[in-house]
Amino acid sequence: MNRPATYTIRFEQVTRTAVRKGKCxxxxxxxxRQTTIMHTVNPFNRNKITGEPKTYDEVRKSVWDEAxxxxxxxxxxxxxxxxxxxxxxxx
Length: 91
Ligand SMILES: [Zn+2]
Description:
By secondary structure, the protein is α+β, with helices and mostly antiparallel strands. The protein has helices at residues 56-72, 78-90, and strands at residues 12-23, 30-41. It contains 2 helices and 2 strands. Strand 1 and strand 2 form a beta hairpin. Residues 24, 26-27, 29, 76-77, 80 line the site of zinc ion.
C-alpha cells in the first residue's frame, strides 16, 4: 500500500465489522447481525492512561476490543429485542 508523497492531514479511520450470530435468545431461531465499529485517529482521541493522542495501532486495538466485546454478547434479532422491550414496558 503506497502512501502519497505529499503530506496531508487527515483523520484516518479504522473500521472493523463485528458479527454476532447464533440462536436468538428470545425466539430461538438462528440468525446473524452485524455492525461496523469505527474510530478515527485524531488529536482528540487520547489514551486515557498517558493522555497522549492514540497511535494508529492503539486505535486499531480499541476498535478490535470493542468489536470483540460486541460479538461476545448473546445474539438476538433486533426485532425480537424491540418486541421484548416493548412488552416489558407495557407491564
Ligand atoms: Zn429472534
